[in-house]
User: Fold this.
Amino acid sequence: MKKSKKLWNKAKKIIPGGNMFLSKRPELHLPNKWPAYFSKSKDINIWDLDKKKYLDFCTMGVGTNILGYSNKVIDRAVKLQIEENKKKPKKVSKFQKRMDEIAKQQKRRR
Assistant:
C-alpha cells in the first residue's frame, strides 16, 4: 500500500478529508492498512495501487451494495440503455456533448 499511502498523505493536504467519500476514508476502518485509492474493483474485491487485493466488506462499499462492483448483468443493461438512447433523436446539451468528447478521449487512451 506504499503508493496509496503516499498519495493519501499528499491528498489530505489539498483535499478536505483526503477524498470525497466519507465511507472510504482509511482512518475510519483500518488506519495505515486500508487503501485510500483503488486501481480496480470486481464483485466484492478491490485492489490498491500496489495490486494488493482486499475484500470490501466495509458498509458494502461505495457502489458494491448488493450487486458488487463491475456486475456484468448490470453493466450490460446500462450499456444497452445508453445505446438505445443514442438511437432516439433528441436535443443534446453542451454538457452531454462535452461528456461524449471526454468518453471518446478516454477510449483512445486505452
Remarks:
- Residues 4 and 37 are 6 Å apart (CA to CA).
- Residues 2-60 form one domain.
- Strands lie at 38-42, 45-48, 53-55.
- The chain has a mean pLDDT of 80.
